[in-house]
């Protein structure tokens, strides 16, 4: 065989090797399986944390709402108590008690009066 034929044959074999090499190439992923597992675990932790945070915020909102309702009830009760205190003062006045006593048939006896002092 001549040199020209050998060079041609060698070129064809080289081309076949290049084609075989390109076909044999394995596509490598840019993440290893370990990195994928770590990524999934991290994503799960982020989801769990966000759900936990939202749940806590909703509980805090409910407690604050309950506190405001109780404070409103306390305020209303204080108002009722002060109104009742005013009524007690009005109804316990000396003139009113004396009028009621007279209406019931009681009379005032100056000789039978005892003075009581508050401490």
The whole-angstrom Rg is 50 Å
Global mean pLDDT: 85
Shape: rod-shaped
What's the assembly state of these chains?
A: single chain
Strand-residue proportion: under 5%
Major sheet attributes: none
Order of helices and strands: HHH
- The low-pLDDT segments are none
In angstroms, what separates the terminal alpha carbons?
A: 140 Å
Structural class: mainly alpha
The percent of residues in helical segments reads over 70%
Quick rundown:
The protein has 3 helices and no strands. The chain has 119 residues and is mainly alpha-helical. The model has no long low-confidence stretch (mean pLDDT 85).
Would you write up a description of this structure?
The chain is an all-alpha fold and 119 residues long. Helices cover 76% and strands 0% of the residues. It is built from three helices and no strands. The chain has helices at 3-24, 33-91, 94-103. It starts with a helix and ends in a 16-residue tail after the last helix.
